[in-house]
Each structure stands twice: as structure tokens, then as C-alpha cells.
Design a protein that fits this description.
With about 70 residues, the chain is mostly helical. It has helices spanning about 1-35, 35-70. Helix 1 (about 1-35) runs antiparallel to helix 2. The two termini are about 30 Å apart.
């Protein structure tokens, strides 16, 4: 209940927010120091990494669920 909501909120505040700030600052630095194409390439690689991670995590979880139900 309240404890799990608190845990999710804490994870968001102390893990995800600093990561998002770091990504935004890095993109700003790339945009100011290099050509905009490098910034776009960096952003595309981050998005592809996130999508791939999500896909394989969901695939692994589905496989684990299937094995658990078969047991």
C-alpha cells in the first residue's frame, strides 16, 4: 500500500530524475560544442538502448511467467 507507493516515489526522485538531468545536460553540451547531427545521433542511440532494454526485459519476464505457470 503506502510503503510501495513511497518506494516508487523515492526511486523516481533519487534514481530517475538525476539520470534525466544528466541526459539533458549532455545533450545540451553536445548541441553547443558539436554539430546538431551528433546530438541527434546521441539521442537516437539512447532511445534505441531504452527500447531494446524494455523489449528484452519484457520478453524475459514473459518467459519466466510461462515457466512458472508450467511448474
Amino acid at each position: 500500500g503506502a510503503t510501495s507507493f513511497s518506494s516508487v516515489l523515492r526511486m523516481g526522485a533519487f534514481n530517475m530524475v538525476p539520470i534525466m538531468i544528466e541526459i539533458i545536460l549532455t545533450l545540451i553540451i553536445y548541441l553547443t560544442l558539436f554539430n546538431w547531427k551528433f546530438c541527434l545521433l546521441l539521442l537516437a542511440s539512447i532511445i534505441l538502448y531504452l527500447l531494446g532494454t524494455f523489449y528484452f526485459t519484457e520478453r524475459r519476464a514473459a518467459s519466466f511467467r510461462k515457466m512458472t505457470l508450467a511448474d
